[in-house]
Amino acid sequence: MLLTALLFLSSALVTGAANSATIFILARVGGGLAIGAASVLGPAYIAEVAPAQWRGRLASLQQLAIVLGLFLAFLSNYLIARAAGDAAATFWLGAAAWRWMLWMEAAPSAAFLLGVGLVPESPRFLVASGQRDEARRVFARIGGDADELVRQVEGQPARAASARLADLLQTQKGWLAPVVWVGVGLAVFQQLVGINVIFYYGEVLWQAAGQPRPMPCASTC
User: Fold this and answer.
1) Per-domain residue ranges for the chain?
2) What are phi and psi of 214, to 5 degrees?
3) Whole-number Å distance between alpha carbons of 153 and 14
4) What is the mean pLDDT of each run of 10 residues along the chain (221 residues)?
5) pLDDT tens-digit profile of 72-94?
6) CB burial readout 120-154, b (16+ within 10 A) else e
7) Which residues pair with 170 in a beta bridge?
8) How far is residue 113's CA from residue 1's CA, in Å, rounded to a whole number?
9) CA distances (Å), 220 to each of 26, 57, 81, 83, 182, in order?
10) What is the DSSP string of 201-216?
């Protein structure tokens, strides 16, 4: 997660400063990889660290945070464009407004980096690494019977290590297990609902709904 946070931060800084399409695209690809990694690592970390009674709620809050982040991105872009008069207009420090829209990503990226530096290591990872005393301290910090939780986890790494890709197949029937099809179906359905249209063309949709383009601020703005 630390590497992901650094990738987020570097992507935000480089895309805003890019002077060529190649650098811009490479930086955006790096940001996309960070998003993909965080989408997997975040829920996995929550599942390993959160107490059982909070696990489902915290995983749901992670999804809520994604949606709120999208909303705040649209809002910050709107406010910057309104203050500058146009996305291509010169804004702070002589840089174009669209560059500041991208540099705004650095703020949540830095907050993520700071937060990751403060959270404890996964106690399940610590148990698997033989650091049982440290795992007990983490479990005691997040609540519950630390000794009992360590005992519950101790048998899990061996089972996880024995997992194979072939476990996803139904050997008798020769096709993928039902749980795999459920996962694939959810991923496909997520794309078919059209949410990416909202992500990528939000401004165009707002204009089609009657929202005018941001105009230059008055002197009292």
Assistant:
1) 1-119, 121-163, 166-221
2) -60, 135
3) 42
4) 91 91 92 88 83 78 84 87 83 87 91 88 79 79 71 60 61 71 83 78 76 46 38
5) 888 888 888 888 888 778 888 88
6) eebbbbbbbeeebebbbebbeeeeeebeebbeebe
7) 175
8) 8
9) 40, 44, 16, 11, 55
10) HHHHHHHHTTPPPPPP
Write the DSSP string, the chain: -HHHHHHHHHHHHHHHH--SHHHHHHHHHHHHHHHHHHHHHHHHHHHHHS-HHHHHHHHHHHHHHHHHHHHHHHHHHHHHHHHHSSTTSB-GGG-BHHHHHHHTTHHHHHHHHHHHHHSPPPHHHHHHTT-HHHHHHHHHHHSS-HHHHHHHHHTHHHHHHT--GGGGEETTTTEE-HHHHHHHHHHHHHHHTTHHHHHHHHHHHHHHTTPPPPPPPPTT-
pLDDT in tens, 3-21: 999 999 999 999 998 899 9
- What is the distance of C-alpha 31 from the center of its chain? 10
